[in-house]
């Protein structure tokens, strides 16, 4: 399916471009907006893999909640100062080199990875809500329940941390 | 029967547990009944056992339970009923009961009353284990246990540090002997494969005399006896042990514990006759002790110390008898000694009690008018120990002297001199305490009184035993048939050499020897009477200049100081050196250096925490790269 | 339909690696704490995509379940992280990590 391929390439390039712009922006608000674009690209990838439930959840949670949180924080606290970064140049060079080396190592590890090319990912059925739900509630019920406790903790923590007056 | 046997030591054990648990809470009345009561119960059971044995006398081993089974070693917790153990059981429980009864009166005002009876009961339990055991290990339990109880009871008034030191001294000297005993046991096990009496004696009987391993075993066991029965060189604890209450001295250091060594050698008679070397050693030590201790007793001024040295001397007599093979004689003397020495100690306790704690005979005098019961019983005991017929001491001491003469004339002569010295110092004690004018304070004179009935009745009972106890073994020349010898004969029958208590001495010689001894003793008594009562020269004030020999003896030959110099001080010096150099300088330094290492490492490594998140991330990335790299390479 | 035109798994692997490293570089370079948090989110997302890809290719739902839970944790973490940043801003009026380096030796 050539169209799928082109779609894949387009989404990949979009994601990579947005990610680089997150780093390269001067203002934090630009970084937030570019990150949101990245998330949409990744959601597109999810749909390519026929992981429908994940795609939707991804958009709702990440683009809808987390990025909104970031936006609120930036805007309410007026953090939109210029990212001047008078970091010494050599630190930035070192960082880019380190990250680049990591990338090359990882690519070197993964290149030519044989096997598992037999299945067509867009035809799998496991990404459907019905199937995913069955597996989730059948095999992974305990982590599911525990994650609710995790959320409770997070909520309480966030509220407590955010209070103005003494606790 | 087995239940009976088990109950005999169990009664004192329960007494100990009961009294020990309630040592603060139990009322006096209950303790006064329970303390002596358990011993009385054991005594009655022993009597039943004894009469049963008389009827059908077969020595039996009663297995209580299998105790240790390790490979080839199988030791059971077993008791033996044979004539020797029955004799000892009767002595321990009988005399023990009388002493417990006496203590009810003697310790009446002591705050540690309950604790006293608990410890005494525990002591009787261990002593019974010692004499009833059917193998050396059970005997060793009792051996160690009586050492422990001796420590507890000597240091009974523990608030006085001197008494505690005396208790420690007793225990440590005992332990030195115990090491010998333990090594002897190990050798016994490797040689005979068992610690059971019956098995060992069966295997030993056909052996030849003079085998090196037998010499080693018997010498090691004898070292144990030296420690427990206060022979040279491990005797200095016994005079110091007089720091304990007088009933303790009577029970432990006169009648029972110190005789454990004699019992042990008598029990192992088969082994000892197979080793003439040990017998020579034993005889030499015994003779030396007998004379040595008697000479020290001549110049002591404390009632209990005189009696303590007398005990050491008499134990020397017993070991001398054992060394020439007169086992029955030794056991006979053990029995009669238990009677009259306990009586002497209890009488001394009565005197001390009446004088409110005074123990120096130079401050006593003329007590026979105020304390008739004590005086008469004390007189009987003193006559017995000096060997005046027809009291028991005469028969037992005479038997030892005859056997010694049979062996060698020198031996007899030394023991004879010892007997004269015994008579002298005992009668010195008697004259100075009970005759003459009262030399104490006026306060004491007003409080002089005879002891209460609870104390005098045991004295009277012991006096009866002392007076008539000799008739249990009247020798042939008097027409008797040596009942005790017959009773104990099966125990000693296995010894190949010197089996019978009959000697090769003719009756005429025996009569002559007896006559000489008697005349000499009476002469000594008369002279002492003249010296101490008529001429009132019984004691020397401390400031008077004494000649060298008298000074040496009255300072106990400076033996304690000698031990202090050659043993105690070097050990303390060694201990200090080890502490300073090895403990503090070496081991502590190693341990501390580990701690310092950790501290210094931490001090150096803390500079990694720069607080800069980017730096942390950077190092993390490097780490990941390194890990991936190494994973690929390896 | 044909397997030949299906996208090989390598492509996903390489893509996610590059995205991950971009996030890493972002953490190392940036001074603004918020942007650092966003780079961390980027890293997490790359992992999520890779897991989902593997799940699709091997037909094993466990991968997607895992992604689900990772999203859960990421959401909670962002909430708390932002709360902490707000608190820090309130006290020190700066979210520059060069200023916030007092937790050191």
What features would you describe in this structure?
The complex is a heterotrimer of chains A (167), B (634) and C (105). Chain A is mainly α. Chain A has a domain at 1-83: Up-down Bundle (Four Helix Bundle (Hemerythrin (Met), subunit A)). Chain A contains six helices and no strands. The radius of gyration of chain A is 20 Å and the shape is globular. The model of chain A has no long low-confidence stretch (mean pLDDT 85). Chain B is mainly alpha-helical and 634 residues long. Helices cover 72% and strands 3% of the residues of chain B. A two-stranded antiparallel sheet of chain B has the order 1-2. In chain B, strand 1 (60-70) and strand 2 (73-81) form a beta hairpin. Chain C has helices at residues 9-29, 33-58, 62-92. The interface between A and C is large, with 84 and 72 residues.
The total of helices of chain C stands at 3
Report how far apart the termini of chain A are. 60 Å
Shape of chain A: globular
Could you tell me the strand content of chain C as a percent range?
under 5%
Order of helices and strands of chain C: HHH
Instruction: Summarize the biggest pleated sheet of chain C.
Output: none
Number of helices of chain A: 6
**CATH architectural type of the domain at 1-83 in chain A:** Up-down Bundle
CATH class of the domain at 1-83 in chain A: Mainly Alpha
Q: What structural class should be given to the helix and strand makeup of chain C?
A: mainly alpha
Order of helices and strands of chain A: HHHHHH
User: For this entry, what is the oligomeric state of its chains?
Assistant: heterotrimer
Give the low-pLDDT segments of chain C. Answer: none
**Which structural category do the helix and sheet elements of chain A fall into?**
mainly alpha
Which fold name corresponds to the CATH topology of the domain at 1-83 in chain A?
Four Helix Bundle (Hemerythrin (Met), subunit A)
Rg for CA atoms of chain C: 18 Å
Radius of gyration of chain A: 20 Å
Helix residue percentage of chain A: over 70%
Overall residue-averaged pLDDT value of chain C: 87
The CATH H-level superfamily of the domain at 1-83 in chain A is NADH-ubiquinone/plastoquinone oxidoreductase chain 6, subunit NuoJ
